[in-house]
Amino acid sequence: MTVYDSDKAGNRYKGQIYFQKLCIMLPYLLRSASFYEQRPDLVDSVDEFTCELAQNTPQQSNGGDCGIFTLKTIEFLHARLPLTFTQDNMEFFRKKYAYEVYNKKLSI
């Protein structure tokens, strides 16, 4: 599992501890959510996931933009685009999301 952490500059060690715990719990969460029943092509296992922190993840410079960074990271990865956005883009993205939600026209 690759983790894209937009706030790793603050306390990287603390983040690694949380991600390691997630890698241990994730197989059990998938099993309890019947994920493997929906995906019989995957092996049902409770083996711990391997976990790595992605390098060069765009970083936020405040404690309030983690949601926007998460959404943009998902959108860029889905579109197979390089993660080129920065903290300076967040005000625009926030306004764009507000406009799209208000007008019920979300776009990627």
What labels would you give this structure?
single chain, 108 residues, mainly alpha, 2 domains, two-stranded parallel ribbon, 47% helix, 4% strand, protease, Peptidase_C48_C, hydrolase
Average pLDDT, to the nearest integer? 89
Helix and strand content put the structural class at mainly alpha
Low-confidence parts lasting 5 or more residues at pLDDT below 50? none
Distinct helical segment count: 4
Query: Roughly how many Å apart are the termini?
Result: 23 Å
Give the radius of gyration.
17 Å
Task: Count the beta strands.
Answer: 2
Q: Order of strands in the sheet with the most strands?
A: 1-2
What is the overall shape?
A: globular
Give the fraction of residues assigned to helices: 40-55%
How would you characterize the largest beta sheet? Answer: 2 strands, parallel
Number of domains as seen in the coordinates: 2
Q: How much strand?
A: under 5%
Keywords: Hydrolase, Protease, Thiol protease
Family: Belongs to the peptidase C48 family.
InterPro entries: Papain-like_cys_pep_sf (IPR038765), Peptidase_C48_C (IPR003653)
Protein described:
It holds the Pfam family Peptidase_C48. InterPro entries: Papain-like_cys_pep_sf, Peptidase_C48_C. Residues 1-77 form the Ubiquitin-like protease family profile domain. It is a single chain. The protein is mainly alpha-helical. The chain folds into two domains: 1-57, no CATH class; 59-108, no CATH class. The chain is built from four helices and two strands. The protein has a two-stranded parallel ribbon with strand order 1-2.
